[in-house]
Design a protein that fits this description.
globular, about 150 residues, alpha+beta
């Protein structure tokens, strides 16, 4: 299992962020280069070219909201698959008011399952590639999350 976590800070309040962060369809539509196939509040599917050099073809991803605590947290299951490989990631977002205003968003993500070619990729390569993808996702989300 691979574990990632961090804190993102936003100048808007948790009640302003929460509806967007717990909406699978909204999150999918924020991703650059994603061809969204289906998008609802509870589930989104999209296709995109993998940003990982060791994967080829199209990356088919499903994001399902698996839990919500209104105004406070959301949990997700992310299933990605491409030719010869698949992964499952479980992610949690927890929103808290930040000191001085705004929101401190604590997030965790755990890659809980890898199959096919992903099992043969060295751990260090997966760790660094996943960290890059995570950074890119937060960068894509940031402007959309603070829009009013």
């Amino acid at each position: 299992m691979f574990h990632f976590e961090g804190v993102e800070s936003y100048p808007v309040s948790p009640p302003a962020l929460y509806p967007k962060l717990c909406d699978a369809g909204f999150l999918a539509r924020c991703l650059p280069d994603a061809e969204v196939v289906d998008a609802t509040m509870d589930r989104a599917e999209w296709k995109m070219k993998p940003k990982l050099s060791f994967l080829t073809g199209s990356l088919d991803t499903t994001l399902a909201v698996t839990g919500r605590v209104p105004g406070e947290s959301a949990t997700f299951r992310i299933h990605g698959k491409t030719i010869g490989a698949a992964s499952v990631t479980v992610a949690t977002l927890v929103l808290r008011p930040a000191v001085g205003g705004g929101t401190a968003l604590h997030w965790t993500a755990d890659i809980t399952d890898r199959t096919g070619l992903l099992k043969m990729v060295p751990a260090g390569l997966i760790q660094s590639a996943a960290q890059k993808v995570i950074s890119d996702v937060w960068a894509a989300l940031r402007p959309r999350l603070i829009e009013t």
